[in-house]
Amino acid sequence: MMLHYQDPAKLRTKKIVFEEVYGASDSCTLEQLKELSSKRRLIEESINESTSITEAIAREMSGGLTSHSQQVLQKLEQYLPLLENLIFHVNLVSSNCQISQWTANLKIQWSSALCSSSFFNLRSPKFFQIGDLKFELQMMLFLYGAILRQRAVEIVPENLVQSATLFREAAGLYRHLADESFASLQQHSLLVEKPPEILPSVSTVMNLICLAEAQAVTIRRAEEKGTSISLLAKLHHGVAEFLDEAAVILYAAIGECKDISSRFVEFLSSSRALHRLRGQKYHAESLKTAGKVGISIAVLRVALTDGKRQMPGEESWKSTYRKEIDDTAELLRKIEHENGFVWGEKVPSEEELPLCEGNKIVSSIPYQPKRWERELAFKI
């Protein structure tokens, strides 16, 4: 099993009514602004959990989709091309002071899902306000990636291939956010208080987490197909390497934003430790198969010692992690017993152990922004 961390999807936002702020010079533009507000309101109600719509009606409105995450993804896919079009047309007249004032008057407000303060105040989270449409786009795309991860987790048991694909799509979306980094938005990020979600470094961390999760799902499929234990060891170490890289970047991000959730940090370190432990277990089995029983025992002893030091505090993560510890301890007991009665091999010191190299085999699926090309005319 993987460790699950769904907090990035726990974003909240406040209402925006575009047609009340932007002056439309024709009825067509007014209708498009109203449509934009309508599409956004559906997302607001979904993530704020403020909708009065029943599950049956929600299913009917979405064309039969039964999963809440699928319904939210559909709403995002309908809203984002309209938002991209608005940004395009606002940029065409961005030199006009009135346009800038209208955008500021939207009062775009989002909470953060990755701040420690947000975790402890889920009922009344702190909201950040930035007068820039790129803030709206950044947070909507961040949410889109988080919901893709959520959906990928939902379908893990029944469709490993599709789950890995969704994780890779989320990785590509976060890669897009990290690469774009929206220059105008980064000027606002010089403010003392800022949500971690607008930092390119945090988007890079999310990209690496999604790649690690995609590879973890791929490993499950490889296990089902009977892939060699030596390759499985390398794949698990590959997951740990993705997360090693993410941890380095996240620690740097903490320097930019002091309020990053300790739970986010713990998820990263616990997932890394879990896959390193699994990699070491497979590595030890591979060594035993190759007749290197003493080295196999030494690898397992070191893996257990290191693994026990990194037991997570989160109860749901702890149970998964503890099972891995128990399985590794049982494997060690069996090999030690066999060595004592049959092989009698010397167990080397930790310094003499061979390293197991990681193998990273997954990549991001690039995100391609979509824009509904409709003319907008403002009264300026």
Automatic annotation (TrEMBL):
Family of this protein: Belongs to the BROX family.
Segments forming domain BRO1: 1-380
Name this polypeptide is given: BRO1 domain-containing protein
The organism of origin for this protein: Morus notabilis
